[in-house]
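Provenance

Sequences were taken from public entries as deposited. Structures were produced by running a predictor on each sequence independently, with no templates supplied. The record for Iron-containing redox enzyme family protein from Actinomadura rugatobispora is shown for reference.
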Amino acid sequence: MTDSAVSETAPHPAAPPAAGPALPEPRGQVSEAIVTMLARSPSPSWTFTGPLAAARGADPFGDDLHLALHVCYELHYQGFEDVDPAWEWDPSLLELRGGLERTFVTALRDGTPGGGDVDAVLDDLLTEPADAGAVPRQLRRSGEWWQLREYLVHRSIYHLKEADPHAWVLPRLRGRAKAALVAVEFDEFGGGRAERMHSRLFADLMEEAGLDPAYGAYADVVTAPMLAITNMMSLFGLHRSLRGALVGHFAAAEITTAPSARRFARVLRHFGVGERGTRFFTEHIEADAVHEQVLRRDVVGNLLATDPHLAADVVLGVQATGLLEQHLEDHLLDCWQADVPRTSLRRPLSAV
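Predicted structure for Iron-containing redox enzyme family protein:
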C-alpha cells in the first residue's frame, strides 16, 4: 500500500483479537488501504494521505466508499477476526473515516429535498405510492427462488444486527423521548428473550432458506446500495450532532415496515417457507404498527419539544432513508428484470 506512511517505531501492544467475521475483500483504493492496515497493529505515526485524498473524490454511493465505511463502523460492533480492537479508536483511521463520512452526508443532503416540516414528511409515509412494494411484487409475480435468497442476503447485513445501530442514539436523548425509544428497542431485542430477538428471527429465516446465518457472512458479496443503508444508520447514530437524523430514520422505518412486512410474509408463503421462516416478518406486522405511534408521538414529538432546531435533521433522516431504499430497489429490479436476469450480488450465491 503505497499511500500510507508506516511508522518505524514500535506499535502499541497487541490486544486480544476480535472473534468477528473475516475482513472483506477491498473494492478500491480507500477500502484497500483500510483492509491492509487492519491486518497489522495500530501505530501512532501512520497516516492515510493518499486514501484521504481519494475519500474526498470517491463516489458517495459507490462500492469503495461504502465498503470502507462498513469496515470502519464494524469495529464499533462485532469487530473482525484477527483485527486488533485498538483500531476502533485509532486517530488516523478516524480521520480517514471522517473524510468518507463528509462525502457521504453531503451527498445525502444534496440528494434529498430537505425542509423542516416533520409532520408533513411523516404524513407522506402513511400514503403509499401506487408503485410501492415493487420488489415483493416482482418476487410474487415472476421471481425465482434464487432472487428471494439474494434479497435475504442483502438484508442480512442489517437484520442480523437489527436494533444495534439505533441503540447509539439512546445516550443522546433525554426524558420521555429516551424512555419511549428504549421501550421500542426492548421489543426489537425480543422483550428480553434471546430467541425472540429480531436478529435471531432473521437468522432463523436465513437457515430456512439454506443460507449462512452467521453475522457478517455475506459482507463480501452485497453491493453498495445495501451497505449504504446500514452505513447511514451508523453514521447518524455515532454522531451526536446527527441524533435528529437517526430519530427521523427510525421513525420512517417503523412507519413503513408493517405494510412491507405483510407483503414479504406473503412472498415467503408463496415460495413455501414455513412458520419458522415467516416469523420474522409476521412479528413486524403487529409490533411496528404500535411502534409507529410511539416513535411519532413520544420520540419525535418530545425530541422536537426540547430541541426544535433538530427538525431539519429529522427530515433528513426520513428523506435519506427513502432515497437509499429506492437505490436498493432500483438495483435489485435492474438486475432481475434485465432481458437476461443477472445476480444483484457481486457474485452469485452458487459461487460463494
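Residues 275-306 form the longest helix (32 residues).
The chain has two domains: 29-110, 118-351.
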